[in-house]
Request: fold
Amino acid sequence: MLFLSNNKTTQGLTFCSLLSLVISLSACSTPIKNITKKTVMVSDNAINSGSTNNRVAHDRFEYLNRKIYYANIAIDSVLLKPVAKVYKRFTPQILDDSITNVFANFDDVGNAINNLLQFKIGDALKDTERVIFNTSFGIGGIFDIATEMGLPKHHEDFGQTLAWWGVPAGPYIMLPILGPSTLRDATAKLTIDQLTKPEAYSKYPYQLLVVDKLDERADLLSAEDVLKVFSEDQYSVLRDAWLQRRESLIRDGKIDKKADDDMIDALEDLEDLDSE
Reply:
């Protein structure tokens, strides 16, 4: 339907972003198309090149993190995934898209606040416009009018704001259920980020939280096959991918030249594989 967000049909999502989305149950879900085992191998090599040693240095609690990671996988297998399958099977696509859009509209409030705190005034104004147009003309955010109008979607949180102000990330940590984070980002996620969510002030905040996370998990079901062809050490691949994407978000997509060259090489390899 016109004005429904096209996030779920977007192609060309980098594999590093995909990995981070899968493990953290991110809301920006994208069906995975045209990804083969060769593609995974190329992306795996790209992830593990460059500044991997720096990422390992941040994982000082690796033993505990791995335990929590596999516990999360077990919980997902016996609880989250089965429920998400039922949700996906009986929820019409148009309703599924609408639910995703509503919570994305809620997120724009936090995006606007954090962009303002980072003195990115132009982005903060665009986020505010998104909320106004999607809430009014988009009927509470059911329809993503703002994107159709050319207003870009941003992804900001208080962890990124703290990074902008110079607060160090601290060690990498794996949170129960919530997935990968750092000490700085986890502190922000569990405190200030909760205060910027409009749904937290509703009459049914916990019910809305359940619906939001269920919708996110259901949207990720299409990425399941990619996980099956990972390298043997899935934990390391996912950790490195998450940290790389997190760094990209904090820098608004601006990465160092070496990382940029590595990504270009990886994309060129992917193009060669797709042409085979």
Residues 7-261 form one domain. Confidence is low (pLDDT under 50) at residues 1-50. The beta strands are 172-175, 179-182.
